[in-house]
Amino acid sequence: MVAYLTRLIDRKLDVWLNTFGAVSIEGPKWSGKTMTCEQRAKSAFYFTRRPGEADPYELAMLDSSYVFEGEKPRLIDEWQVMPEIWDMVRADVDMHRGEKGLYLLTGSSVLPQKSRNKNQIRHSGAGRIASLKMSTMSLYETGDSSGAVSLLSLFDGETVKDDIRRTSLKDIVRFIVRGGWPGNLGMEDASIIPADYIERVYTAELDKLDFRVDQTKFRHLMLSLARNESTVCSISTLAKDAGGNGRSLDEATVSTYLDIIDSLYLRADQEAFSPDFRSRTRLKIGVKRHFADPSLPAAIIGANEKNLMDDLQYLGFLFESLAEHDLRIYAEAAGGRLFHYQDYDNDEVDAVVALDDGRYGLIEIKLGYEGVAEKAASSLLKVAAKLERKPSFLAVVSGMAAAPARRSDGVYVIPIVSLGP
Asked: Residue 24's beta-bridge partner residues?
């Protein structure tokens, strides 16, 4: 049996189980949702058919009580296969008024299903079922980052710990190509699982829809998103890029296909940040495009450990994706959110971590170290100087820095393999 690796979401999940009657864990397939819930569940019903067992869907349709029988907390895995389960859980929570942590639900899609599953959810579950998003694993969770520099500690101006790290460019490439999939840790060829994941999206997942999707156009859009990973890119730009040969996809089609991608929890876009609540800046600036895991754009584009270093510019975008993937997880563990910053002077900041108490920090992300840390620090200081409400810290997250440090100008330089929550 594979040992369970602790996830940063664990603590929040435990709090929510003591607060709500049921908790739904949502996120990409293979991200570890089921295993995380199994650490807490005392019984389970799986909608995935297992060898030698009856079809669980048919069983549930014959008698739904099979889904609910068992000691609590009860795990119902991939509940969206039978959407009416949501209302049944909500009703059962109501019947056990005041009891907490009765059910754990997992879901990896909210796609419109074929005719057998057309029943609609009638109640949001507000107050009864809490929805918690789960990401693939960060480098801290996989054990590739020491976590010697806590993101939260930067807000308090703490001195960074000594943490000599010897990380090669090959290590960084492997982190990207492997991604944060629990089942991909230790695999000899790290590119196989993400590539298979994407192929299943193109085939099995699209086949579940009630309407026809032009698979060629869908693949072109996914390729366009991969090419534009870690960039601010409008729908119109995606439509032109995905069309190719001087042609453009219909923007309504692009929007529909983006909704499908979202319903599979495959995107994790970064919204724009404004430090002033009254500012219209966020409304005028687009999102930075990200897949839910850095291995996905690499797989779509055909990048692997052998060829990715042939295109250092694209490797830089994928490293930014890796860093922002981890920063988002660390920020959310601290009760914060991840944004990006861009103003009308064309000054940009790759990442902004904003806490719910109003504090925020500005972070630039650089694959290299020599020669780029100085430029990144200058850029951060320039942006900080024009902001009325000052950031709590400025930092450069680097792929190749040898050790955490605080420069004489106050800017932190942190290896990605030293960063943690």
From this structure: 105, 131
Q: Could you tell me the sign of the dihedral formed by the alpha carbons of 381, 383, 387, 393, in that order?
A: negative
Average pLDDT score over residue span 59-63: 92
DSSP character for 367? S
Strands 393-398 and 412-415: parallel
Question: What would the DSSP string read from start to end of 270-309?
Answer: BEE--SSTT--HHHHSPPBP-BSSTHHHHHHHT--TTTGG
Mean pLDDT of the chain: 91
Tell me: cis bond preceding 73? Omega within 30 of 0 counts: yes
**Structural domains of the chain, ranges and CATH numbers in brackets:** 9-133 (3.40.50), 139-420 (no CATH)
Q: For residue range 206-228, list pLDDT tens digits in order.
A: 988 888 899 999 999 999 999 99
Question: pLDDT tens across 260-288, in order?
Answer: 999 999 999 999 998 775 554 443 478 99
Instruction: Please check whether residue 420 is in contact with residue 147, taking contact to mean a CB–CB distance below 8 angstroms.
Output: yes
| Three-state secondary-structure class, residue 94 | helix
pLDDT at 74: 98
Strand segments, DSSP code E, in 149-308 are 149-150, 271-272
- β-partners of residue 420 are 150
Q: In which element (H, E) is residue 319 found?
A: helix 312-333
End-to-end CA distance of the chain: 28
Residue 22, amino acid: A
Beta strands in 51-175 (DSSP E): 74-77, 103-107, 129-133, 149-150
How far is 90 from 136, CA to CA, in rounded Å? 28
Q: Cβ(165)–Cβ(71) under 8 Å?
A: no
Rounded-to-integer distance, Cα 42 and Cα 198, Å = 33
pLDDT at 380: 97
Q: Read out DSSP for 190-256? A: TTHHHHHHHHHIIIIIGGG-SS---HHHHHHHHHHHHHTTTSB--HHHHHHHHH-TT----HHHHHH
Rounding to the nearest 10 degrees, give the CA dihedral for residues 176, 179, 183, 185: 40
Could you tell me if 181 and 296 are in contact, meaning their C-beta atoms sit under 8 angstroms apart?
no
Rounded to the nearest 5 percent, the helix, strand and coil shares of the chain are 40, 15, 45
Q: Are 135 and 54 in contact (CB under 8 A)?
A: no
Q: What's residue 253's pLDDT?
A: 94
Cβ atoms 142, 5 nearer than 8 A: yes
Higher pLDDT, 166 or 413: 413
